Amino acid sequence: QVQLVESGGGLVQPGGSLRLSCAASGSSFSINTMGWYRQAPGKQRVLVAAISSSRLPNYADSVKGRFTISRDNAKNTVYLQMNSLKPEDTAVYYCAADLGATLRPNDYWGQGTQVTVSS
Predict the structure, then answer these.
(1) Helix (H, G, I), strand (E, B), or coil: what is residue 35?
(2) Are 115 and 16 a contacting pair, CB within 8 Å?
(3) Measured between alpha carbons, how far is residue 46 from residues 25, 30, 52, 104, 106 in Å?
(4) Among the ranges given (3-7, 25-29, 62-66, 85-89), the one the predictor scored with the smallest mean pLDDT
(5) Distance between CA atoms of residues 34 and 59, nearest Å
(6) How far apart are CA 18 and CA 30, in angstroms?
(7) DSSP category for residue 46
(8) How would you classify residue 99: left for phi > 0, otherwise alpha for psi between -120 and 50, otherwise beta?
(9) Which of 8, 37, 104, 110 has its CA 20 to 30 A from that of 31?
(10) What is the rounded CA–CA span in Å between residue 32 and residue 15?
């Protein structure tokens, strides 16, 4: 089993930045892909970004150029640096991990962290 714990959410003004972190524990040595999803009120959960064990990233078109995903394999942690935030980025952000090499990690989930972009 793998446990994921997110941190770093909060309230930020449009144009601001936040950095989310997700620490994996348990059988974290078995993790291949990690990523971030988000779910806005009344909408489906969508992939924001994912990163392979070799640190190859992929992004949703809506965040390209603004968000950066990275990981520290030694710390079993994945990060999401979010810059130039917009009100439409407001959502609950979920960390996910997968044992396989996939563009959409979904074997394990964190509890979610709220990001609110508002003036």
Answers:
(1) strand
(2) no
(3) 24, 24, 18, 10, 11
(4) 25-29
(5) 12
(6) 28
(7) E
(8) alpha
(9) 8
(10) 33
